[in-house]
Design a protein that fits this description.
Two copies of one chain form a homodimer.
Chain A (H helix, E strand, L loop, with lengths): L12 H14 L8 E2 L1 H7 L4 H13 L3 E4 L3 E4 L4 H26 L4 H15 L3 H18 L3 H8 L2 H10 L10 H12 L3 H19 L1
Antiparallel strand pairs in A: 1-3, 2-3
Helix pairs in contact in A: 1-3, 2-3, 4-6, 4-8, 4-10, 5-6, 5-9, 9-10
Chain A binds a DNA duplex (30 and 30 nucleotides) through α2 and α3.
DNA sequence: TTGCTGCTTTTTGTATGCAAATTCCGACAT
DNA sequence: ATGTCGGAATTTGCATACAAAAAGCAGCAA
């Protein structure tokens, strides 16, 4: 299912521009502060100004870029405090997520164990990039299992700050530190103990932050 | 300060369209499911299609409207479960907000008391509309005092669902029910007791939901 | 050197025109 | 009556053209 969300591979130009820019911003090819000029992007993507402007408006609503009238648009810069703020919110959201997801996972944690295993092997290999990918996937599984649309939306809205954080914290983080918590967390979820699972997950998030700070 | 956020009263056409549509959606003049056609809005607002499309893209990113390619855009419909979901997230966010805001309010709750008083008098008058306005303002004060950008953003993203909820729950709600909690909450904040304040605020939110459900 | 002045260039904001896709609706056959 | 087939009308998607604002720059004066 590599095409799009609307079934057929036909997606609007504005969407393609949006995803392209989103990719560049997320993986750092466009760093915070980088200028974005509409006609330049339009030419690169073989399109015109209109679709680019639509894409920019969307990215602006996602708080990834900032626009000043008649001055231009830039990739948003994020301060260390904003990163810490985002981690606090993430912890609060995942605290709720684990509580809500407990019902879903009770006696049904096979997939979750597999995901945690992927994180573990990446940690053993000291592969920080893979670790990041699989760890996010692990957390996302729990948030999705909570089956709460608003929760998932809020959680996803924090993605940019978290990406910046992991990019900045290149300094040797202890990838094994979170492992025990993961497995105990899964045990609690398997027992349907949402409260305890929530506390563990929130704790896991704040320690992850301290590693990157 | 009725003009705009960028200082001078000169704002782009796309922004004007966005705020106009936002107003219509929020106050129910455009009900969930209502169709929005680009050229029609453009004519109403004395502008062209481009700015309208930009505004729509922004509202789409805010999850207020849904667009299907070549089919059109409509005001998003929200299910009762989505409303409940939003209240759960709101409770989780305000639980955090109160904890973070405790430091700010410690020994400095005058403004908060005034806001709570406005809610109280509206409740005594049985003026449900004023009650809604002032109650939101009261909660917003706490979220803003938390001084956490991501938190405020997430909280504001729930506004649509909450508006729908209060519009649906026209049935005689007990406006006095939350009063005691408000004042006790303020007392705890004044003492700097964030944990207790958070629990009270979250509890306050879920009871508010049950009134509207 | 410093600071102003006016022009040129760059970039954003908006309008118009047209292509692409969908929906609507009536004619016609069964 | 029902269905379905084929244009016409509507609506979205995109490209081009141009206006408006800001930024940069050269030249000149103090």
């Amino acid at each position: 299912m590599a095409v799009s969300k609307n079934g057929i591979g036909r997606q609007s130009m504005a969407d393609r521009v949006k995803h392209e820019l989103l990719g560049r911003i997320m993986d750092g090819r466009m760093a915070p502060g980088a200028r974005i000029v509409e006609l330049q992007i339009a030419e690169e993507m073989q399109t015109s100004q209109g679709p680019v402007r639509e894409a920019l408006r969307e990215l602006e609503a996602m708080d990834l870029i900032v626009t000043e009238p008649y001055k231009g648009t830039r990739v948003r810069e994020v301060t260390p405090k904003e990163i810490e703020d985002a981690y606090d919110v993430r912890a609060a959201l995942e605290l709720l997520a684990a509580q809500l997801a407990a019902k879903h996972f009770k006696g049904n944690v096979e997939d979750l164990r597999k995901a945690a295993h992927a994180v573990l092997t990446a940690a053993k290999r000291k592969d920080a990039r893979a670790y990041g990918t699989y760890d996010v996937r692990f957390h996302r599984m729990i948030v999705e299992a909570a089956n709460n649309r608003a929760l998932l939306r809020s959680w996803e809205a924090l993605a940019y700050e978290l990406r910046i954080a992991t990019r900045l914290g290149k300094g040797h983080v202890d990838l094994m530190a979170a492992q025990d918590v993961h497995w105990h967390l899964i045990d609690e979820l398997e027992k349907g103990n949402g409260k305890a699972a929530g506390r563990m997950l929130a704790e896991n998030v704040v320690t992850a932050f301290h590693q990157h700070s």
